[in-house]
Each structure stands twice: as structure tokens, then as C-alpha cells.
Predict the 3D structure of the following.
Amino acid sequence: MPVSRFPTLILLVLFLVCFSIAQTPAGQSSLTITVKDSNGAVVPGATVSVASNGQLFRQTVTNQNGVAVIEKLPEGSYQVTVKAKSFPIISRDFSLTASSPNMVDIALSPGSVAETVTVTATRGQVTSEDTPVPVSVVNREELDLKGLNTIGDVFRTLPGTSTVNEGAFQTRPRIRGLDSNRVLILVDGERLNNSRTSTEQSGVETGLVEMSQVDSVEVVRGSGSVLYGTDALGGTVNIITHDTPGRRDHGYHFGAIFNTFYSSNENGRRGSVAINGSNKWMAFRLSQSMERFDNYFTGKTDGKVPQGILDINAGGVTPDGEALNSQSHGSDSNATLRFFLNDTNTLKFNYDRRRAGNIGSALLFETFNGFFPFSNRDKVSGRWDSAAITKNLQRLSVSAFYQTQNRNFTNILTVGPVLPFFPGFYQFSETVTDTKTAGLDLQSDWVLGSRNNLTAGFSFFRDTNNDRRIINSSSTASAPIQRSDHSKSVPDASLTNFAGFAQDEFRVNRRLKFIGGLRIDNFKTKAQSTNGFSVPTLRPDQIEALGIGALGSGLNVSNTAVTGDVGAVFKATRNISLSARVGRSFRTPNIFELFFTDQGSVGGFVVGNPSLKPETGTNFDTSVKLRTSKFAGSVTYFNNNYKNLLATQEATTPGPHGQQCPVFIIAGPGTVFDADNCNIVSSNPRFAPVQVFQTVNVAKARIQGVEAELEYPIKIRLGYLTPYGNFSYLRGDNTDRSEPLDFISPFRTNAGVRWNNYGKSYYFDYSARIVATQRRLSTAFLLPANQGGNGGPEEGFVTHNIAGGYYYRREKFNLSINLGVSNLFNRAYSEQFTFPPARGRSFTIGTTWEIK
């Protein structure tokens, strides 16, 4: 779809908004919800939320008689969710018609397993048992209990997931062995990913969302491309932030929340304050937070450095365990305003301003010092929702956002002198990337007959990137600048995506339903002729073979992706559901991979490749899920096959005798390249040739495994004792080379037990994280370190954590205090396939003060 037609889409959206507001639902009723405990006693002060197709429709609180009344509710399908002190979350589906009862009774039991509800897996609110998509949901109470520094830390404890990097800002998720841009990060359903970040060495930071703003985190494992498009190759993470209060049919409501958090290991401090209010016509929420984390400390090595942890004498870790250059600080300002236009239409606006600075890259210190002086995000967004428009059109939603990500990466290279031969070398390099993203999403939900529910819509986003860079070189930091370079490694470029999607749910009977979807994406990537960006000096035949002739003068690249999936859910019994799904996933090459042309961070010279194909995957999942009021468990097997995976390799061109010859940049006189034999026959030591590398589609891979999780509350004399845990086994193979993949953690187990009293006012929690040693690795990876390998297998580890807390809950006031100790025995270890060591022991305390 041409960009010139985009204004037409805006006019269409405005027409739909006016049309929906003008409609009068066929019928309206008042819904009365009575909340009681398992003994039949009423539960006052419970929060009752009514959602329609995944979007909050109304919210209220039960009165002293345990009753909540929702007035003027249109006919349609809804989900009632009840949250109350001392009880797990309970959700119930119901349909409201003129002939159906308008009263719902909900019974709560302190020992019941909480319902798991997701909006990410299907673009609509549904319980995890009703979808074939493997999903984990971490709510705010669990986030507080875990005592997390950053959202990235969540992925240490979920099935099938792990982490990349360390520190309070830069920890990122790895899902089923894939990370960086192969995992899609959403914030309230809108993209956080951008197409400028490197896939092999970087990725979008979840730290761009401040922890106190988060209400829940939903993690979909496996393909999410049909609903969300590119990057959802390994999984999709939806970070759902705090919303405004729901509509109040009578009076005006004000509230406030104050949060604090402290972590002893890195002297981490975070505080936030929020105020909110609502009435019949509007609601608002305003918040401000600040945080500061110093360098963290590793666990005690007792004189022995575990495999994979940098030697403390190498300069990255001090003798007392301080991981140098791992600090960060930041702030967040957020404002949300929602208007209730009438009983079925709402309009929401949000502004989020995230500032982060002095962000270190752990252990990049001394000789090569890399850090981020700032990494900022600004986002404005709007969303319109309409429910019960007609008998068949149950919901229409339109959202739009504009986001800027402005990041500065600075590195300083210092090489000491070797007198009298070498005076020393100092280089200061600063690269500022300014990426702007505009996005639009339209979704409609249809009820077609008694068995069919259809979700359909279209989406659009455009990333526009501009870089600026300066490199100053001299013999020492205090010496006069000898060379100043203002060149660019990436041209000014944009990536535009238009997509249409549809997903249908067909219920064969009350036990069996099928879910299938289709998506078509068109991508246009455009590089402009940019001052300071140029291709290296190579022979014409090499430039032609590498396909980079037009890089310097501007280039347009276009591709189309078609994805689909189909799944089934079968309710074998009231408590057991079986599901299976097979689908396609993809990731389009981004601006960095298509156009980056410069010195590589690990040596050599990298050139862009405009001919790259999208990475694609075929994903299969099958699950067994068991849920009763006293037990919840699931087992999932998955088998994901990928092709055209991108990797940076030595660039070659055909030689005169059919052989492939490496490509070199001849840096100066005295170097002769023997084309017949593909090698350097002489060289001036002052002008060593530089080898050229290029990102290409090379790899096929298969990643398969088993994921399981359980929760089992047991009633004992003093309260409820709940064993819980999850288990993951992953196996990865490079099917091109018939060898193991070198980024797969094998066995990962999280096991724990939690006690809480009958009123859930007090709790104590113990958990252990067990990661097995990974010996199944390629021969090259297992080579000694002085030969470019890892020096052995990736060592496993076990960490222990304890936590406890107190909850004081009343109808108008809540107080919670959460205490914890992570890495209880101060174990020195490193997350597998992560260079920096992990944090040592840390004492944490978090408090939440809420006026409702």
C-alpha cells in the first residue's frame, strides 16, 4: 500500500469513530455482581472489572454488602475479573442479552489458584487454558514479590526464557534460545523494537520502560507474527503499564500510590508517586519516578574464577567483586487521560517521557570503555475503543502512537605507549542514533453466528533513523587531536510496514474449537544519499559481487511476507485441556543489517547487504493443561525450525579458478593481493590490509524442547503452603552444519514454596534457580580461549532466594512491604552465554502505599 494513501486511512478511521459513536446498541441492562467468600460471607471492597474483547469496559468496587452494580451495559460478551484482599484473582465469562439474567454471583476462596488471563496471545482477553499459545503472565503482585531491579530480570524465572547482559538497565530477554530483535517487545500492544539496533550485539532495552510503571508482563513463547508482524520470531513480550481507574457511575474518586525500592548490592534506589481520579465522564493518572543504581558486585569467588567469568585481574572486576562500568540512573514522567464519551465509547491519551543516563556496559573498562551517556524515549499515543456497535460488530479499536528513541553510545580506546617505538593511542568515538517511529493499528472484533468470532484489522509503522558521529584520535587523552572523523556508518534511512491480518475462532462444540489466522506484510526500506556515508574502496568486481554499488547514492529495498497459523483447543474434561498449534513466523532485515558499513566492533570492516531475505520459522507447539481450584499445571512440547537466519561472515568473491577469495581493503602502498591464489603476498607493516565481512542469510536451525510448570496450594494448620515451579529443556541444532547451536541453555528449573496465612496478610517464599552445565556445544566453541574458543563448556549454577512480606488491605487504603534476599549464598556465577558475571547477594525492600 503506497504511503500516499495513508491520509485516506486516517479519514476512514475518523468516519468509523463518528459512525460508532452515533450508533445506539440494541439493548442495555444493569449488571449486578455479588462477591462472597467460600463460606458465603460477603466481600466488601473488592475491585470488579468488566472487559469486552480484552479491553477494560467498566470498573467499580463492591459495597459493604459485597455488591457491585454496572449500569447501562450493552448486550454482548464480557469477562468479569475480581481482585480482593486475601484472595487470588478470579475471572468469569458471561453473555448479556435481553433474556439472560442480569445477576452474577462469584465465590472467592483463599486457597484457590489464581486465574491466568492474557490479552497478548489472541489480541483479546482470554484465559491461558483457552488458547493454544504458550503464555506466561506476571502480575504486579508477583513483580513486587520478586524484588526486581529491571523488567529484564523477570526472564530468569519463567519457563523457556533466560537473559542477556547484566545491569539495572541493559538486561534483555532470551526466549527459547533467541534474543535481541528476534524477540518482539511491545508496550501496551505497541512496538518498542526499532529497526536501527544491531541484532548480533545489541537489541532494544526493556529498561526503556521504568519498573514502577509496569502493571503486568505477558510473555508469549513461540511465533507471534500473525498478530504482531516482524520480530516475533522467538516470542512476544507485552509490557502492560498502569492505566487510569475505571468509570465510576456515581460521584468522583481520587487515589494515590507511593512506591519505594532499595537493593543493597548496587545501592539501588527507586521511588515513584502517582495520583489518579475518575468519574462518569473522565479519568486520569499522573506519575513521576526516579532511580539510581551504582556498580553491582559479583558473588564471592574464594580465589577460584568460574568458567565464563572474566578474571578479576583483567580490570573488569575489582578484587572486592565490583563490576566496573555497570551503573545507570534515570527517571520517568507519565500522564494518561481517558474520556468516557458514552456508555460504549472511550478515548484515551498517554504521554511517557523516559530518561536514562550514565548507563555502563559491564566490564567494558580500561583499554576499551563503552557506555551510554543517555538513552531516552518519548512517546505520545491515543486510543479509541467502541463496544457493542452492532449485533455482529462487537468491538472496534484504533490506536496511534509517535515515539522517539534517542541514544548515545560512546567508546574510548586507550592503548598505552611502548617507548621509543610506539607513542600510544587514544580514540574517542561518539555515535548518536535518533530513531523516530510512527504507528497505527485498527482492530475489529466480530461475532458471526453462534460459533464464529473473527478478529481482523490492519497495522502500519514507520521507523525513520538519523545518525551523527564523531571520532577523535590522538596519541594520549591530553595530546592535541591528530584526526577528527565525522563519517557515518549507517545512512539516513527509513523502514515502512503496512499489514493486514485476520484471525478466526470457530467453536465446533462446547469442547472443541479451532483458531486460524493469516497476515500479509509489505516492507519498504529506503536509504538516502547521506553526507559522510560511503562504501569502501574496492575493485569494481568486488563491489558488484557484494551488491553494494548503490549504497552510497541511496537505495530502495522492498519485500512481502505472508504468514499464517492454525491451532486447536480441546476440553477433554472440565479441568483438562489439550491444544496444538502450527504457524509461520518471520523477521525482516532491519536498517542496520541492510546498510551498516564501517569498522566492526570485533575487528575487520563490515559492509551492508541490501539483498538480504527475511528470516523465517515454522513453529509447532502442543500442550496439556490441568487446572482445578487447588492445582494448576501444564506441559508443552515445541519444535521450531528456522531458515535464512542472518550471520556476519567473511566476504568472498569468485576467483579465477572457481575458488572463493576473501575480500580485503588495501590500506596503503606496499600491499599486493595475489588474485590467482587469493592471498596477500607482501605487505607494508604500517598499512595492514583489512578483511571485509558481510551479513548474509546462511543458517538453518532447529530448536526444540519441553516446558512445564505447576502450582499446588495445600491447606495446613497455619495457612496455605504452595509448592510451585517450572522446568525447561532446550536443544538447538545448526542443521546446515549438523552441529549444536552455541547459545542454548539446556536444563533450567525454578522451584519454590510459599506460605501465607489464611488472610494472606503475611507470606514467606523460598525459591531456587538451577541451571545445568551445557556441554552440548560445537567443536569451535569448546576450543581453548587462546584459540578463539570458550575454553570449555558453559558452567551451570544454583542460586537460592528468600522473600517475605506483609499486606495491610482495607477498602480505602492498602500497604504492602516486601523483603527479600537474592543469591542468598553469594554465589559467583555468570548467566550462560553472557560475558559479564551476575550479581552477588542483595538485600531488597519495597513498599507500596495506596489510597483508593
In short: The chain has five helices and 49 strands. Residues 427 and 473 are 4 Å apart (CA to CA).
